[in-house]
Amino acid sequence: MTSGRALGLFLIGLAALAIWSAQSLVVSFAADPLGPRAFPSTVALIMGACGAMLLIPRGAAFERPERMAAPPLLVAVMAAYALLLVPLGFLVATALLATGVALLFGARPLPALATGLITSAALWGLFDRVLDLPLPKGFLGV
Amino acid sequence: MIETFSALGGGFAVALQPNNLFLALLGCIIGTAIGVLPGIGPLNAIALLLPFCLALRLPPESALILLTAVYYGSGYGGRITAILLNMPGEPSAVLTTLDGHPLAKQGRGGAALAISGIGSFVGATISVVLMTFLSVPLARVAVAFSPADYVALIAFALSLLGAVGGGSAPKAWAAGCLGILLAMIGIDSGTGVERFTGGSMELLGGLDFAVLAIGLFAIGEILLLIETRIRAEAAKISGGQRLTFREVVFCIPAMLRATGIGFVIGVLPGAGASVASALSYTAEKRLNEKNGKFGQGDLRGVAAPETADNAAQIGNLVPMLSLGIPGSGTTAVLLGALLMYNITPGPLLFQQRPEVAWGLIASMYIGNCMLLLLNLPLVGVFARLLTVPAWVLYPGVLALSFAGVYAASNSAFDLLLAIGFGIMGWKFRKLDVPLVPIILGFVLGRMLEDNLRRAMSLSDGDVLALLGSPVSIVLWVMTVVAVAWPLLRRRAA
User: Fold this and answer.
1) What are the residue ranges spanned by the domains of chain A?
2) Cβ neighbours of B171 in A, within 8 Å
3) Is A29 on the interface with B (CB under 8 A)?
4) For B203, which DSSP code?
5) How many structural domains comprise chain B?
6) Are residues A98 and A116 in contact, defined by beta-carbon separation less than 8 angstroms?
7) Which of B121, B153, B432, B438 is the most exposed place for a label (fewest CB within 10 A)?
8) What angle do CA B335, B336, B341 make, to 5 degrees?
9) Model's pTM, two decimal places?
């Protein structure tokens, strides 16, 4: 399967979902002749048509990137951050995130840890102390 | 004329306030820095800064002064890596490498940097003057636009995405449609029904623009970068002979031509700074076939594309401010910023919020002078940024992205949403799906639907009313041509 064809199928599927979702809308009164359904359905139809045009095979097969494992690992680190930010607090969670990302970008453990700690402390100082933005405090109370 | 000067004077009163001066300077420094850094463009940087502007409750004119300074400042930074490393920091600086890097190898890197800095200043400043006098007349034309005319104008702006994107037209259009559909998420203002929320409470208010932009561009870019190993190279500016006054004078005609080309290309929707710099380089090369050494280190080959690049960036702002129609991805983000402040750019902006429109224009005069002063002596300092290793830079960028998303919404749900859009941006980039149409579709989508429904209400559902005025007929014909052109070209190929 070429990458273009996979994309075409994805777009057609998404368009079908959008049209189905729009058709299920129940409108009790119509303030305007068009209503909330027509416009998104038309746009989804155009998107589906563009997807159909991509089904004609033109592109090459998927290329294998240099580092297969890094992006999924990065997604895992980021998702963990999103879930742990509030329980752990900004300072700890951000230090973990930055250390993890530095490791994934090829840093050695000690420099990565230093990067994580400095990044976290610097951003916390800037946002919490200088700019007074609301950041999650977490169990340390900072 | 007199009105324009008094309005501009009012703008200077806003722009010269100490906090706004500071924000303009900060924006110029950030803009130049991100222009230097590979992988972070003005679009990412503005998307990153936007939630902080809101969280800090900056007034809209101050936020716009900061964000726009980042935008035009990036035009000064992209040339530094192009000249010193043969590596364009921004897509529009590709042409600068052709003559800039040979000059650097001949030991005249300093001169190439200086002339490109002067060119950027000339292009940007003349364009700001043109913008000062053109914005209000253009806005006055647009005040008379009916909802049906606006539908045609937005359709035309969106149809151009496929014609000028360079890549596959169906992919660009599909991306635009996806952006429009993403804008539909939330409660429909006309009827109060929920659309595309999947029953989620968090999505009732619609997608946050900053979440979409940070996810697609900042997080997506880092996912793309981490796949390939980054090879860091040290940069140095060779001494060599300094730029002479005679050489600057020699480049002036090229700069003036490039300003004209850049500004016109910039004002037209769709085409961006990359097209402008490519066109002006080619024009100079053709004009000076006999006495030029283009490709081997001609100063005009550095001055022309850099001038056109900055002129086009400013030109891009004109339709955004006076019509409310952004012509490029970055101006779409600026428009999104204004919308987050509940300010609708467009014909009425200059009357209703003169402090925003004129304050911004006035600050651009000041910002460009700051950039010239910053860039001539400090170019070495900015070039040193390239020695920062990726594993220091990108963890910081990512942490900043998340802090921004969280500061704007205080919700962990938005963090997950941003990661989701990051994955989408990364996959789309690998599949050659352009991301800018998604942003343009998102910003223009609701405007398009509102105007369409308003037009249909006025005509009691008669679709032919969309073709009711000469303006709309001309725009629809141009739309059909813009849609048909890539399809015909594709058949011929």
Assistant:
1) 3-53, 70-130
2) 7, 50, 54
3) yes
4) T
5) 1
6) yes
7) B432
8) 95
9) 0.85
A124 touches chain B (CB under 8 A): no
Of B177, B193, B412, the CB nearest to A83: B412
Decide if A31 and B191 are in contact by the 8 Å CB cutoff: yes
Count how many Cα atoms sit within 13 Å of the Cα of residue B319 in the half-sphere of its side chain: 23
Of B173, B445, B449, the CB nearest to A46: B173
Q: How far is A69 from chain B (nearest CA, A)?
A: 8
- Among A138, A94, A101, A87, which residue's Cα sits nearest to residue A117? A94
Q: Which among A50, A59, A79 has the least Cβ separation from residue B173?
A: A50
Residue B425 C-alpha from the chain's centroid = 18
- Domain residue limits at B37: 2-492
B219 and A86 within 8 Å at the Cβ level: the answer is no
How far is the C-alpha of B325 from the C-alpha of B335, rounded, in Å? 8
d(C-alpha A73, C-alpha B271), whole Å: 37
The complex scores an ipTM of 0.90
Q: Per residue of chain B (493 residues), what is the pLDDT tens digit?
A: 788 888 999 999 999 999 999 999 999 999 988 888 776 778 888 988 998 898 888 999 999 999 999 999 988 887 887 888 777 767 778 888 888 888 888 888 888 888 999 999 999 999 999 999 998 888 888 888 889 999 998 888 888 876 655 567 888 899 999 999 999 998 887 777 888 888 788 888 888 888 998 999 889 988 988 887 655 444 455 556 778 888 888 999 999 999 999 998 888 766 677 778 888 888 888 888 777 788 888 899 999 999 999 999 999 899 888 888 887 888 888 998 988 888 888 888 888 898 999 999 999 999 999 999 988 888 778 877 777 888 888 899 899 889 888 887 788 899 999 999 999 999 998 888 888 889 889 988 888 998 899 898 888 888 888 888 898 999 999 999 888 887 777 665 5
Instruction: Give the C-alpha separation, A119 to A97, whole Å.
Output: 10
Rounded to a whole number, what is the distance in Å from the CA of A126 to chain B's nearest CA? 11
Which among A30, A98, A136 has the least Cβ separation from residue B395? A98
